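hey so i finally got around to running the thing on that chain from the lab meeting. sorry it took forever, my laptop kept dying and i had to restart like 3 times. anyway pasting the input first so we r on the same page abt which one it is
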Amino acid sequence: MSKNKNLHAAKRSKNDEFYTQLTDIEKELKYYKKYFKNKVVFCNCDDPHVSNFFHYFSYNFELLGLKKLITTCYKNDQPDLFSKNDKDSAIYLEYDGTKKGNRIPDPKGIGIVQLKGNGDFRSEECIGLLKHADIVVTNPPFSLFREYVSQLMEYEKKFLIIGNFNAVTYKEIFPLIKENKIWLGVSPRGMDFLTPNGDKVQTNACWFTNLSHKKRNEEFILTAKYKGNEKDYPKYDNYAAIEVSKVINTPKDYNSIMGVPITFLDKYNPEQFEIIGLMNDKREKHDAFIQGDAVRLDEKHKKFVGAVLRGKAPYARIIIKRK
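ok and heres what got predicted. didnt touch it at all, straight out
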């Protein structure tokens, strides 16, 4: 079964109830401890009753040196395991580290406040809370990922969020990756989420962030050679670049333009490579994908949006060049 089958179904039905496991949060957040001291963290897609993001930050409040933790959720005010999103109003919580007599952080003890609206991250009420936050950390609705990231960029927020890896090809997201305004997190792609019926679903999700981390500047060690193996690196029919079918085969002795699979972003080091653009295999127009002197389709291949290789369109390719 495809890892993204359930996510695609959720997108069609607008069912975004996928819950992040604590182990996945702990695995990634350990690389960013230095960023949280004296900061206000906002988890704006999280019911504090059940959210593992709330659990992580409230239980590690002192260790991280947080100033404040704020959580909000969409259309829910009941402590159910899974919110039904069927309420006209929702709740939020502000935690400053005071346990108020409890040994552990407890939402009821901390004090949950009723929101005036439905808790939608796009609401004026939630945007007001966002403005006072330093870092946003959450698993936003996958079906609204474009809007969610656009809002973070508009308000110039630091963030660490989860999204479908295929979001790297979105016309709203890829230019941000190309301009080094967003990049992938440390953990490998792939997470198991909990669904509303209690099952686990394997996905191709990953972390997106604008917080620097150690992996971002690790050198991608190249071992493959172009010279003497030219037949393994055919040129596109409609663009002056060679095809690299597997990221591991990125040649160390080729200094011109190459097309690589989108999984190249797992290895991308901005000090080592320049991202020129994206050639997509979809038959629809995406003007924002390729900029400048990128793909120019000739008359013969005008039905294709991206690269053409031996008369066929390969999967999406990121166009890169070694620095």
